[in-house]
Design goal:
The protein is α+β, with helices and mostly antiparallel strands. The protein folds into two domains: 4-172 and 369-373, Gcn5-related N-acetyltransferase (GNAT) (Aminopeptidase, 3-Layer(aba) Sandwich), CATH 3.40.630; 177-366, Gcn5-related N-acetyltransferase (GNAT) (Aminopeptidase), CATH 3.40.630.30. 32% of the residues lie in helices and 26% in strands. The chain contains twelve helices and 14 strands. It has helices at residues 11-24, 36-42, 78-84, 100-116, 156-162, 185-197, 214-224, 236-246, 276-282, 290-299, 320-332, 350-353, and strands at 4-7, 54-62, 68-77, 88-96, 121-124, 136-139, 166-177, 200-201, 255-259, 265-273, 303-311, 339-342, 345-346, 360-373. Strands 1, 2, 3, 4, 5, 6, 7, 8, 9, 10, 11, 12, 13 and 14 form a 14-stranded mixed β-sheet that branches. Helix 6 packs across helix 11 (320-332) and helix 9 (276-282) runs antiparallel to helix 10 (290-299). It starts with a strand and ends with a strand. 40% of the residues are buried.
Length: 376
């Protein structure tokens, strides 16, 4: 196939870039369309504070009839590179039809960009932030993703391997079946941890009660995630972006903020009713009716997605997770929740995974980030 690579430079190009996977997987029952306006904002420098420490370019692959058959983004996170002392280019937002000419053309252009910028390593798929979708799905093609996980067809991995990429890290997702009676072990452990370390829950009963603790939440997040793969410290602007992204949809039943004796935030957990089916109905757009499906899903659901758990380093491996889960547990049955879906977490994150060992649970999705040394 003759393939033409076109750099995204106009708003029209960006619309095509964002829309492509929604068109590619239009008839796939396991694909969850992303809200296109939100994706465009993420990729627009004036609307995403990640560009305070990142730069990037995007490209479309066109066939001989000028139809879009693939896309890719090249991203350099300067803060992360400085932290790890390496010259890494990330690639992300990568999708393509099952054609080696297309995937090779996309890989070639992003590798050329990396070399032009003096990078030694290329890794992906990842985004600007740890919170952008990461990884190529390699297991779980017949499972519905969370709204924060990205679906792709099974052929992606073979294309990356053919271009010399190898596994860097894997992310896994769990599906947890809640029993009729949640074991009282969690409540007992929560009491023990609270008493031993002088910890308590922030008094959050309404949405406005969250705001006094937000700065502490992001300080805790930056500190506890500092050693995670691909994470760079969030700037104040990025924190503001995340507040806008999540706060409007936060249900206080699924938010736990843990404070020490001086009311410092030392841990928190955030979950949210699953939006996957609602976003399928929205078909990539909030308007005119997409937001209605999302509002319904937030109010009536049998599944929650576990988005974030962060524990201050000085309290890790001390049972604080039990306090967070105990707070959630009091709301799960009340709200008719039957399942918990964990969003993508590193496969060796045993501290969080131990939360589910008393429940019926399974790893039902796995996503892989690849890496390649450009000097070889």
């Amino acid at each position: 196939m003759k393939v033409t690579i076109k750099e995204v430079k106009t708003k029209s190009d960006l619309r095509k870039f964002v829309h492509f996977p929604n068109a590619l997987y239009k008839d796939n029952p396991y694909y969850v369309p992303q809200i296109e306006s939100m994706d465009r904002d993420t990729l627009t420098p004036s609307k995403n504070h990640a560009f305070e420490l990142c730069e990037g370019k995007y490209w479309l692959a066109l066939d001989d009839e000028n139809q879009v058959v693939g896309r890719v983004a090249g991203i350099i996170n300067h803060r992360y590179n400085e932290k790890v002392g390496e010259k890494i280019c990330r690639f992300g937002w990568v999708d393509f039809i099952d054609n080696q000419d297309v995937s090779k053309a996309l890989i070639n252009v992003v590798e050329a960009y990396a070399k032009e910028k003096g990078m030694d390593i290329i890794s992906g798929p990842t985004g600007f932030l740890e919170f952008d979708p990461s990884g190529v799905l390699v297991e779980g093609f017949d499972k519905l993703p969370t709204a924060y996980g990205k679906y792709n067809a099974p052929y992606y991995e073979s294309h990356f391997l053919a271009s010399g990429y190898r596994k860097d890290v894997d992310f896994v997702e769990f599906r947890i079946l809640l029993p009729d009676v949640i074991p009282d072990r969690y409540a007992k452990m929560a009491i023990l941890v609270s008493e031993k370390y002088g910890l308590h829950h922030a008094p959050i009963f309404k949405h406005r009660d969250i705001y006094p603790y937000l700065d502490g939440v992001f300080q805790c997040l930056n500190a506890s995630y500092s050693k995670l793969h691909g994470f760079s410290e969030l700037t104040p602007g990025q924190c503001e972006d995340l507040k806008k992204q999540f706060l409007g949809n936060v249900n206080v039943d699924y938010l736990s903020i843990i404070l020490d004796a001086q009311d410092k935030v030392v841990g928190f957990g955030l979950a949210m009713p699953s939006l996957s089916k609602a976003m399928q109905k929205a078909k990539g757009s909030l308007f005119p009716f997409g937001f209605i499906h999302i509002l319904k899903a937030l109010r009536h659901n049998d599944t929650i997605d576990l988005l974030l758990i962060a524990i201050d380093e000085s309290y890790q491996n001390k049972g604080v997770n039990a306090m967070i889960f105990d707070k959630f547990a009091k709301s799960l049955k009340k709200n008719g929740i039957k399942y918990i879906e964990s969003t993508r977490e590193l496969e060796d994150n045993t501290e969080v995974q131990n939360l589910w060992r008393l429940f019926d649970h399974t790893i039902h999705k796995r996503a892989r980030v690849y890496i390649k040394n450009l000097s070889c």
